[in-house]
Amino acid sequence: MTDTPAEDLKPAFRSDVVVELVKHAANDSDVLWAARVSTAGEQSLDELKKDPERSKGLINYLMRDRHGSPFEHNSMTFFISAPIFVFREFMRHRVGWSYNEESGRYRRLQPSFYVPGKDRRLVQQGRPGKYVFVEGTEEQYDLTTRVMEDSYRQSYEAYQEMLAAGVAREVARAVLPVGLFSSMYATCNARSLMHFLGLRTQHELATTPSFPQREIEMVGEQMEAHWAQLMPLTHAAFNANGRVAP
Question: Does the model's pTM come out above 0.85?
Fold first, then answer.
């Protein structure tokens, strides 16, 4: 079987990422009934009917003293579209996470590629472990855009040529770069998400500094915005206690 190249499959270039909350079972009250079963037993089920705002002090105490397990009794599933290099960093987070990503073995990969936007700092100054990123010059941005787009076009043309010749998708995909966009579902609980955010976002309230790559931070920021709406008291306690996962 051969794949006939589609005339309309021309490379598209973008600098954004997409994060959608597709399903969830997550509420601040989930933290409360999980915590109170230790002292109230079956009566802890009463927390399901109570306003969690009345018990935000307990949520803050659990966060502050790092009693983490009550923050695991919830679930959020996100659909994420981002460059492959983001997913390879993302999947280093294994505890409390489940992933399913689109497969280059079973479908023709679409020609959508990442090119940094003008707000993406291009130049690294310093040495590993002690460096900062600064703005690039106009010439550096123009060079980056031109070189990346040319490379993407060439690699996707090679991919299509191999498919048209009958080469298997799982072989032909090897010519595609990590700047190619992929998509996945990622499911986590609040505790695992907090650990992710503590490492993959920079924040003025964090007691432990983090230096994430900007592109994975863009994903983290959107995930955090969804979570903050679902569990505002837990999110507030996370911020109030240095953005350290309990």
Answer: yes
* Distance in angstroms (rounded) separating the CA atoms of residues 223 and 197: 9
Residue 163: how many other CB atoms lie within 10 Å:
21
- For residue 79, list its beta bridge partners: 20, 185
- Report the catalytic residues: 200
* Torsion 89-91-92-93 (CA) sign: positive
Summary count for the chain: helices (H), strands (E): 8, 8
Reading phi first (left if > 0) and then psi (alpha if -120 to 50, else beta), residue 41 is in: left
pLDDT tens per residue, range 114-167: 999 999 999 988 887 778 889 999 999 999 999 999 999 999 999 999 999 999
Q: Choose among 153, 185, 156: nearest CA to 173.
A: 156
Positive or negative, the CA dihedral 120, 131, 18, 151 is: positive
Q: What are phi and psi of 132, to 5 degrees?
A: -135, 160
Q: Is 166 exposed, middle or buried (0-12, 13-18, 19+ CB in 10 A)?
A: exposed
The angle, 0 to 180 degrees and rounded to 10, between the axes of the packed helices 28-40 and 232-240 is 80
Q: How far is CA 218 from the centre of its chain?
A: 8
| Alpha helices for 76-189 (secondary structure H) | 84-90, 138-164, 169-172
The SS3 assignment for 108 reads: coil
Structure tokens at 139: 């010439």
Kind of pairing, strands 112-114 and 97-101? unpaired
Is the Cβ–Cβ distance between 230 and 27 less than 8 Å?
yes
- Compute the distance between CA of residue 171 and CA of residue 105 in angstroms, rounded to an integer: 8
Residue 76 — φ and ψ, nearest 5°?
-135, 135
Token readout for 129 is: 């472990």
